[in-house]
Amino acid sequence: MTSRRSARLLAKAASPILTPKASKVLKKPVTKKPVVRVAAVVLSTKVPAVDAGVTHATLADPGMMEAAILYLKSADPKLGQIIDQTTDECSMSLPRDDDNETSFVSLCKSVIFQQLAGNAARAILLRFLKRYGTLTDTSKAPLLNDDSSELQLTDFEFPTAQQVVAMDVEEMKAVGLGQRKAEYLQAVAEQFNSGALSEKMLLGMSDENVSRTL
């Protein structure tokens, strides 16, 4: 589930039935030259069967990312040339993403990283984890008080929702979090801790419902 935390931009793109809103969007030309519409590209792409347990098609699904790239290349030939020249893999995941992390952890990381440069956000997250997280390798415990140590984000388990709810906001600010971010983290934790939000619930929602819920 590499992209579940970032976006499900093509949630219903695999369906041949377009909503009125989608139809209006597709009627608008992307450039002055005729282009292949996204629906046509997606529908002409051979998409492997989606797991029966998956409700919505996403850019993490096989074939969806390829369809999106084909559309970009057809809509903008110059961009297409650049895409063809790059050797990097196109992905919706961010450098901080972990395929195995929960939606709760992903949302908390998004709060911490919001409106910050990557390096600054990672430094704050590392300080947060050093204070509140759990080391996966206890032999590295002596490094916790060493600011120049080589501890990485992957050396820690993120605190649980219950633990975040119990944190003191003023202490959270001591690791570099602002007042609002500390409050947002606790608000997210409260939702998961109370059961108002859950992993299963978010996975079954459409993009629109996820946005409204959050």
Concise structural overview:
The protein has 214 residues and is an all-alpha fold. The chain has helices at 20-27, 38-44, 64-75, 77-85, 103-113, 118-132, 161-165, 169-173, 179-194, 199-203, 207-213, and strands at residues 134-135, 156-157.
Portion in beta strands? under 5%
**Category by helix and strand content:** mainly alpha
Q: How far apart lie the N and C ends?
A: 19 Å
Number of E-state strands: 2
Please tell me about this protein's structure:
The chain has 214 residues and is an all-alpha fold. It has eleven helices and two strands. The protein has a two-stranded antiparallel ribbon with strand order 1-2. The longest helix is centred in the last third of the chain and has 16 residues, at 179-194. The radius of gyration is 21 Å and the shape is globular. The relative contact order is 0.12.
Q: Which labels suit this protein?
A:
two-stranded antiparallel sheet, mainly alpha, 214 residues, 11 helices, 2% strand, 2 strands, disordered N terminus, globular
Please outline the helices and strands.
Blueprint: H1 20-27, H2 38-44, H3 64-75, H4 77-85, H5 103-113, H6 118-132, E1 134-135, E2 156-157, H7 161-165, H8 169-173, H9 179-194, H10 199-203, H11 207-213
Antiparallel strand pairs: 1-2
